[in-house]
Amino acid sequence: MKIIIYTKTSCPWCKDALDFLKSNSLPFEEREVLHNPEYLAELEAKSKQNKTPTFDIGGLIFPDSDVDQLRDYLIEKKIIS
Prior knowledge:
Blueprint: E1 3-7, H1 12-23, E2 29-32, H2 37-47, E3 54-57, E4 60-62, H3 67-76
Parallel strand pairs: 1-2
Antiparallel strand pairs: 1-3, 3-4
């Protein structure tokens, strides 16, 4: 399962999400969109918006999500307990 997280620098919700992924030892790729127009275009194409954090988990898009939504999904899929 590949996790991509789209972030913006200085976004407190992004920091929380990154901390959550790290604390659960989940492999992920961070794509910061403010300084990378290619990643911003990718985020907008995938999610039809530009808010962060947005997650792409194995192709399933969670736009403008928070840690609680991420945790619930990962528990439901038995990726974390």
